[in-house]
Amino acid sequence: MKVSDSTCYGEEKRLMYKLPSLQELLEAGVHFGHQVRRGHPRMRPFLYGARDGVHIIDLTQSEKLLKEACDYVNTLGKEGKVLLFVGTKKQARPIVEEACKRVGAPYMAERWISGFLTNYEEISKNIKKLKELQEQKEKGKLSKYTKKEQLLLDRQMEKLKRDFAGVMEMDRLPDAIFILDTVADNTAVREAVRKGMPTVAISDSNSDPTIINYPIPGNDDAIKSIKVLVEAVANSYEEGKKTASKKQAEEALKKEKA
After folding, report:
1. Are strands 47-51 and 107-108 parallel, antiparallel or unpaired?
2. Mean model confidence pLDDT for the chain
3. Could you report the per-residue pLDDT of 36-76, keeping only the tens digit for each?
4. Residue stretches of the chain with pLDDT short of 50
5. pTM score of the predicted model
6. Element (H or E) spanning 18, and its range?
7. What does each C-alpha distance from 113 to 72, 165, 189 come to in angstroms?
8. Which residues have CB under 8 Å from 181's CB, separation 6+?
9. Vertex 236, ends 232 and 237: CA angle to 5°?
């Protein structure tokens, strides 16, 4: 059976994820880059040209590199590894949050917490603090404080929730990181590189794709473009996780029968 370029299969053909076609990438505006004057010289190999002073990204390369990135992400899922999604742009936040909640992936959408990767042990104390405060509130243990103190604690919880809501269940450093905008979230990129952590990212015409392990040439500003690329990565990760879960279930069944 011949497999089309836009469909990827895991080890079991019943589990598959469909990648967007070239036409779908075009319709989502993935090919629109930034103004020529803002272009990064290292993105030239991924550009088709320019139109009305705006760089046009070569979608044939976008399609090819998206597949490579999704194949890698799918493997992460199969191996039970953690992929952290980072998308702090206002227009990207709801897309990232929805996709990650659906596939069970950690995310940071409000803002990147400086030192999250390079000083994780210290930063994770804030997550532990948030969990403790939530537990105390649920059990009514905060009632022992004055109204003013309870108000301050509620404010502290709200701030911690905004920052760490998407990584509450992540109990260790991620194995890889997916970044929507490497310019806006350049601190996340630098921290990942410093830790030697593999990176997957959308590379718009104003970014440096050479610092990313799996760059995906594309528009990181338009909502439709963000949505089609985020969902492709999230779906491939989800299918990898499904393959892993299926294997675990089969192995557990074999042990029961043994």
Report:
1. unpaired
2. 91
3. 999 999 999 999 999 999 999 999 999 999 999 999 999 99
4. 1-5, 10-15
5. 0.89
6. strand 16-18
7. 26, 12, 12
8. 87, 88, 89, 92, 202, 204, 207, 220
9. 120
